[in-house]
């Protein structure tokens, strides 16, 4: 969902939730769900029960694989259910109501590139739809099958391919398999003193291959915001062969081959390996929080900061609603959370320069330590807890949506106002009551910013999905009208198709369709995502 | 050819050379050519005469345009001759021997996007090959027609579309027409206090559209090395319609549409406009030169510097041959030329940190001012003079080639040695005498570097092209064997096709072919470049 700074805990003693975010053990108990729900007037008193796989009426798999592939494949109901959906609000609600989308017939866990190629070959021969699956954290309908055109559906779970295969310490790069989850990747890099420092909110539950396929946004608020920039080369298994680019620090030889696969969301091939650019582990860190009287003044400060060349690692601007909601500021302030880090040189001077610049624009440093550290820590804790609270609210039939975008600075004030006003109006119209529409800037650039919106409203049990769909459609419409991207780092998937189709230049759509036909002639890879 | 730091002089009183680099007035007189040639044993005593258009035997144009297009088009012999070739060594030699490639039948100078679309429509109907032409500074055969498949050839000169159309001061961006030459672009931005700061060696003689189409390398030695990174959005006229991307500071919505056209070298469409990210004009600058006893030690220092996060704007490492040749150091030293710049904060501290780091790796700061400034200024003057000297040597039948590449740090020492040894051996074998093979690093990255090689040898009059081709083929073969890119910022054109075809992943080649067929169904755009 968003960039963060999570712990790298070993995960052995916990169980992944098949229907909701993350770990079963971290989900809010019923009483806490009810307490949270009580904050939103009009919700039922009791949470929907936690859904059980056994209650699903799973159809018999429509297909079997030939014997050589059998060891890679399972039809286990729990596996099939867990691979049926991503982790968007609509996914959670569908699971809660025991109405998941088409459940995959089979789940495959290849152990090698050859396994992947063999599975794609078989899928092409049989017309089986293949849904590449990393950690399954998509919030845009990226890992489910919708439609009728394919006789069977295979979820291709890459998480057995989870090794760092090679480390080039001199060039600070590593060859890594696509199926590695965030914490396991960092554990393997740590003995080399290296880190990818790519920490999306989904870090524990998403994979390198997933990040690459969706152009994930990571740790850095400025400069190198997307995982794209850390990609030195890719290996991609396409239905017509392996696409392997050379390891190059830079090149001008034709359009970048890697940039075609970055963001291809599993529609053109399966990313099995990448050489990734790494960082030395930072030893110098400094952070601060600055309070502003208004979002407008704060955004202006952030713009100047983004154009200053100071390159903060963290530069997150919380509007007053977001700051209040996350506990970063209770006094109605807008809060700027700043962080600098370096493996080489002290960063205190850069932080002081940034704070001074913020002060010039009406900012007031939060008092130490309860203030700065307090705001930073409160926000971070809330950030990592948020998806679990989202699930708790979903169980109470609350409506929760997060969406993000980016636009240039000249259009930011109008976009901010329009999204808040029109989304709030849609919430009112759809639910009959006021909701919360909060905003933060997660990434900033010299020429613009990426606002991230959170919508919370009271839904009506049984009508949650329709309500969510209508609010989301209204929000997507505002973004499109303002020519703000339909997604800065959540990807397109199936849910963002209307906005994406509007935004994508028509000749490029034709070009992408031609690429799809060339690389995936049977049309089996993630049908309905981006194209078709 | 390479990044630099040129003057923005008004150009009104000078005449562009139709056959050689830049301005006629800057070309070396015969006596200086002869003096230069005398440095290479075995060359003839007299230069080849400056070629005249009148001596060319131009065929009658094979095609005419319909009346509405007539005002856009000329068949003037001087125009046709000037658009027949780029500015590679082989282009100059062919002009000197009055054997240019197929001269275009017509030269068109559209004034608007609609003109471009109309011309492409006509070309598609008549099967006329269209060669998009900016400043014509290609050194890779990017602007000439080779082949027989098209009945006629049109050179599409974009330089009438040379305006900055809109400036967004808040977002520091401008909407600029593709045909603007470097100095005219900077002159239009200057009143706004803004600059693109993209200064290829060809700055005076190349256009924004050309930079974008070829992924040109610019001013910055680190961080944002290619013009790609400064591109906010593009307008591209393709034969099937206009491709217009939204202005976005960042996006994760599918594969980047702009990245498909960046590097497309005129094969997929004509870049008529771009929103470019700009910089505030720097007011703080500091530079220094550091001398090293060996290339190996210096490269190690540069690697650590590139990984330090200091981000020098200039970080050019000249090996002993290059340093001697350019006058940066006469004592056999390897020279590192460092420069920092900022619009916002003093850069003395960064320069001191970089010099200190270089010292830790055996570097010795050049004495001030004759040393540091001297080495920097000497190198810069030589850098801008170099293409004129190249032409002078060509007139003496010397052989001059420059080529550049990039590879990761782990492979740099082996690549450096292999390229120098094998290219020198090829020179010896082809010409029978020793030649110079010098190297500099022009751009550096955390994970690698971009070496730029210069080859100078004595050719034999009449056999220059064959000799050059053989030396170039040998060099390209070494690069490919070491999996170093065939070009870091010179582009592919027609001359680098063998290396490019070797480097390009096969599925991507198929994808690009499919894109070509979708966007340019008649196959009229820059045939033979990248594809076909």
Automatic annotation (TrEMBL), chains A, B:
Transmembrane segments: none annotated. Keywords: FAD, Flavoprotein, Oxidoreductase. PANTHER family: ALKYLDIHYDROXYACETONEPHOSPHATE SYNTHASE, PEROXISOMAL (PTHR46568:SF1). This is FAD-binding oxidoreductase. InterPro entries: Alkyl-DHAP_Synthase (IPR025650), FAD-bd_oxidored_4_C (IPR004113), FAD-bd_PCMH (IPR016166), FAD-bd_PCMH-like_sf (IPR036318), FAD-bd_PCMH_sub1 (IPR016167), FAD-bd_PCMH_sub2 (IPR016169), FAD-linked_Oxase-like_C (IPR016164), Oxid_FAD_bind_N (IPR006094). Belongs to the FAD-binding oxidoreductase/transferase type 4 family. The keyword Flavoprotein applies. It holds the Pfam family FAD_binding_4. Residues 100-281 form the FAD-binding PCMH-type domain.
């Amino acid at each position: 969902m968003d960039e963060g700074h999570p712990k790298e805990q070993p995960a052995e003693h916990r169980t992944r939730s098949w229907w909701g975010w993350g770990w079963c053990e971290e989900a809010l108990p019923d009483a806490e769900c009810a307490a949270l729900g009580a904050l939103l007037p009009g919700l039922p008193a009791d949470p929907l029960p936690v859904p059980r796989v056994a209650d699903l009426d799973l159809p018999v798999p429509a297909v079997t694989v030939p014997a050589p592939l059998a060891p890679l494949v399972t039809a286990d109901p729990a596996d099939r259910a867990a691979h049926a959906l991503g982790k968007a609000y609509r996914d959670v609600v569908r699971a809660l109501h025991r109405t998941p989308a088409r459940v995959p017939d089979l789940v495959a866990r290849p152990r090698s590139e050859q396994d992947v190629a063999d599975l794609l070959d078989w899928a092409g021969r049989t017309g089986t739809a293949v849904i590449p699956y990393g950690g399954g954290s998509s919030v845009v309908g990226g890992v489910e099958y919708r439609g009728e055109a394919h006789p069977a559906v295979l979820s291709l779970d890459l998480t057995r391919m989870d090794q760092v295969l090679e480390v080039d310490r001199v060039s600070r790069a590593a060859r890594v398999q696509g199926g590695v989850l965030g914490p396991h990747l960092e554990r393997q890099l740590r003995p080399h003193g290296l880190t990818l420092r790519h920490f999306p909110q989904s870090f524990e539950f998403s994979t390198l291959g997933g990040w690459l396929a969706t152009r994930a946004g990571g740790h850095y608020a400025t400069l190198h915001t997307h995982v794209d920039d850390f990609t030195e080369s890719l290996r991609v298994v396409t239905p017509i062969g392996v696409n392997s680019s050379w390891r190059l620090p830079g090149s001008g030889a034709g359009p970048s081959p890697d940039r075609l696969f970055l963001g291809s969301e599993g529609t053109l091939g399966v990313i099995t390996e990448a050489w990734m650019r790494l960082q030395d582990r930072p030893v110098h860190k400094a952070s601060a929080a600055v309070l502003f009287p208004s979002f407008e003044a704060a955004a202006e400060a952030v713009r100047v900061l983004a154009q200053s060349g100071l390159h903060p690692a963290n530069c997150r601007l919380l509007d007053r609603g977001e700051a209040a909601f996350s506990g970063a500021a209770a006094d109605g302030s807008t809060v700027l959370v700043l962080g600098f880090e370096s493996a080489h040189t002290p960063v205190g001077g850069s932080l002081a320069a940034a704070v001074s610049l913020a002060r010039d624009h009406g900012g007031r440093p939060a008092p130490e330590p309860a203030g700065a550290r307090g705001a930073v820590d409160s926000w971070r804790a809330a950030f990592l807890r948020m998806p679990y609270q989202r699930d708790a609210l979903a169980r109470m039939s609350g409506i929760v949506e997060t969406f993000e975008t980016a636009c240039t600075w000249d259009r930011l004030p109008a976009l901010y106002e329009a999204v808040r006003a029109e989304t709030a109006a849609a919430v009112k119209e759809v639910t009959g009551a006021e909701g919360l529409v909060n905003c933060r800037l997660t990434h900033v650039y010299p020429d613009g910013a990426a606002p991230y919106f959170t919508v919370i409203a009271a839904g009506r049990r049984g009508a949650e999905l329709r309500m969510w769909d209508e609010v989301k459609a209204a929000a997507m419409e505002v973004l499109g009208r303002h020519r703000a991207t339909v997604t800065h780092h959540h990807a397109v998937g199936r849910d963002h198709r209307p906005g994406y189709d509007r935004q994508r230049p028509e000749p490029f759509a034709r070009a992408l369709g031609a690429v799809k036909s060339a690389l995936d002639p049977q049309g089996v890879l993630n049908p309905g995502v981006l194209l078709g």
